[in-house]
């Protein structure tokens, strides 16, 4: 029954692709790097790209029209909705900006170029919005800055300099490349390894930053980090192809898996039901495991097996061969930038164990992982690399962003 519903859903998409309004190619951006839906289900989508103009656009999904959010005039590293969807936040260079999502006006510019500024002095590496307290936004600075700053987007002010004690002690600490809130007060961060040690997972209590905890995660830099729905397990992906599973309560590793040698993990995720987790890589494949088959706690079985790299995944979801890479991809059709040759982004539907994957070959896959043959549909949506994918809170829309200057939005019908 589930298979019938999903095929019906995707066939509706395909049959309406040539019709007005069902598949919208929202043009006007360069290389789209990120897309996010309104968290409260309003028909809005924000996208960001690698260069001006049109580096930050706020779309109305019903009309397909966009408001240009002007002010960064540079590459946008990340964007999201905040303050229960009343605002958009974006980070470009070393600045965090807060925008009104109705008028598109800039409400606050946080940070500056002054060395004495409370903001970042180098570009912002990563940004995360606290979904429990959505007025709170955390940003991390690149090497040479190293700050981990918590902002109040409603008031337009710095709420806390989380790692100021570490910096004041002249401690050697890594740059944070990815992060996510585990709960209302707990922040998990994944680092690089440029300072000479292992990449680490950091846990911060934003109400009590001095209670910071850190543990080794990988010999390579961490590319992606996610928390399971129960809020007790962290999954990380690394540049050496390893996947780390960590128990938040024990503050230690459960064990490790691998996507295979020679590949970099590009994305990790848990399904919204918490039963499945996935890891995508530059091999253009996504591996899916079932938590009922792979232990996620310190049981006797885990203690007997110190290495889970050979735990067989439930599925290997393939987009085919890797895309060829080149230094100047604009001059070589069919080539992508280094690191974009595989599966670049993944998102789960909210109400079903269906994974959506976006590939460097410009295609999008939909996979029902409960099926023996999980591929529900494989659609080519971009004529260049697909970089980002988002699923609306009610599963009504799926959107992708690509290197062909397009945001493609699907309207799903169940």
TrEMBL record:
Question: Which SMART domains does this UniProt record tie to the protein?
Answer: WD40 (SM00320)
Q: Which residues form the signal peptide?
A: 1-22
Q: Which Gene3D superfamilies match?
A: YVTN repeat-like/Quinoprotein amine dehydrogenase (2.130.10.10)
Look up and give the organism this protein is from.
Answer: Triticum turgidum subsp. durum
* Keywords, comma-separated and alphabetical: Repeat, Signal, WD repeat
* InterPro entries to which the protein is assigned, alphabetical: WD-F-box_domain-protein (IPR050995), WD40/YVTN_repeat-like_dom_sf (IPR015943), WD40_repeat_CS (IPR019775), WD40_repeat_dom_sf (IPR036322), WD40_rpt (IPR001680)
- Any keyword Signal? yes
Q: Where are the WD repeats?
A: 215-256, 336-369
Q: What is this protein called?
A: Uncharacterized protein
Pfam families membership: WD40
